[in-house]
Amino acid sequence: MTLLTDERRPPADCTTMAEVRQGVDALDRALVAMLAERQRYMDAAARIKQDRAAVRDEARVEDVVAKVKAEARAKGLSEAIAEPVWRTLIEGCIAYEFEVWDRLRRQP
């Protein structure tokens, strides 16, 4: 049995549901941290984009989804999981970016 650096067992080494749940919980914490960093990039995008209409870029959405699907295939993640998760993530990020864009440019 090999423990990973965050004290979770690799899935193939799990023998109990407690070990599985510990691994899932550790990954969830890591995902939240990465999503928080992604959100900070949305803050930067809202600050940089001068035109509100530039917040939603359909070509960029499709580019991101295509890249995610390719990475999912490479890493063994089902595209049926990856694509809807990222489309939901992207829509949430766009809504968030609109809020930040508006807040940054609100007249006092």
Automatic annotation (TrEMBL):
- This one is known as chorismate mutase
Q: Which PROSITE patterns match?
A: CHORISMATE_MUT_2
Domain (Chorismate mutase): give its ranges: 11-101
- Give any GO molecular function from the UniProt entry: chorismate mutase activity
> Quick one: which residues bind substrate?
21, 38, 49, 97
**Documented EC number(s):** 5.4.99.5
Keywords, comma-separated and alphabetical = Isomerase
Q: Name one GO biological process term.
A: chorismate metabolic process
Species source reads Phenylobacterium soli
Coiled-coil zones? none
**Which EC class, in a word?**
isomerase
Family annotation (SUPFAM superfamilies): Chorismate mutase II (SSF48600)
